[in-house]
Write a sequence for this structure.
């Protein structure tokens, strides 16, 4: 099965999309209509949205079809490369039609408010931009204590070893489509560990990097997460140890500059200030 889309694909402003937003989903019937309304209100960059699913009976597909007439830039893509976020990203990049690609989860409003500023950094010459919850006013709210501890711990360890990104583990990543093949994704299809791989490899291949702070609220809406600690933890540790070794090898030859853009959105700045 291949991608499903309206015969005419348009951006929010009815022009050629500058940004392809990839949302890997699994049974996200509540979140899809909500995130589309929020995108329409918050993101000014001309964009298309790809809802990427990998189960034939996933109700996310029906939820997407039900609102496609309201959003001509909304596309439904069946991932036939294999299950998991890593394969959803591969498929989404294949199907994307914009020069910039963003990967994000569908259940968090915070990343939506950072998207325009991330695009601005790519326009200014960055190859890869990461959201950050741990610096420049960014915040992480909600979620499990263990998940937060593991994420902050991994980022702290990598920083001590020479990482220049303050939040390699966040799922919010944006990059130039033409640069994607240089990342050579190898993660196992377990949760969002691939985001960690992206954050590490973007530094190792020498991309010009950018960061934008965001306010992230885990599962703000849409019910329970399908997060499974055991398999995720093992894969997470694998990439942490690999990252430590590889970053240590290149710590004196890696680019040390990261361009930071504080969100220009008044709503975003108010949210960041209120969360402190």
């Amino acid at each position: 099965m291949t991608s499903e889309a309206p015969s005419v694909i348009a951006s929010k402003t009815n022009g050629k999309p500058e940004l392809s937003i990839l949302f890997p989903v699994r049974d996200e019937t509540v979140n899809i209509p909500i995130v589309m309304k929020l995108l329409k209100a918050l993101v000014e960059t001309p964009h298309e949205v790809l809802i990427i699913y990998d189960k034939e009976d996933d109700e996310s597909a029906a939820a997407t079809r039900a609102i496609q007439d309201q959003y001509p830039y909304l596309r439904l893509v069946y991932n036939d490369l294999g299950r998991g976020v890593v394969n959803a990203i591969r498929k989404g990049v294949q199907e994307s039609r914009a020069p910039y690609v963003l990967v994000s989860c569908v259940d968090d409003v915070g990343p939506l408010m950072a998207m325009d500023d991330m695009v601005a950094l790519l326009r200014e010459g960055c190859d890869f931009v990461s959201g950050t919850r741990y610096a420049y006013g960014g915040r992480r709210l909600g979620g499990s204590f263990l998940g937060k501890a593991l994420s902050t711990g991994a980022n702290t360890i990598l920083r001590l070893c020479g990482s220049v990104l303050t939040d390699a583990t966040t799922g919010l990543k944006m990059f130039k489509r033409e640069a994607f093949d240089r990342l050579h994704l190898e993660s196992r299809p377990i949760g969002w560990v691939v985001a960690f791989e992206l954050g590490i490899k973007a530094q190792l291949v020498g991309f010009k990097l950018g960061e934008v702070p965001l306010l992230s609220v885990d599962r703000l809406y849409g019910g329970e997460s399908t997060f499974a600690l055991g398999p995720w933890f093992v894969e997470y540790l694998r990439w942490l140890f690999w990252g430590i070794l590889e970053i240590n090898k290149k710590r004196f030859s890696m680019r040390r500059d990261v361009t930071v853009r504080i969100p220009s959105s008044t709503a975003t700045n108010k949210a960041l200030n209120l969360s402190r």
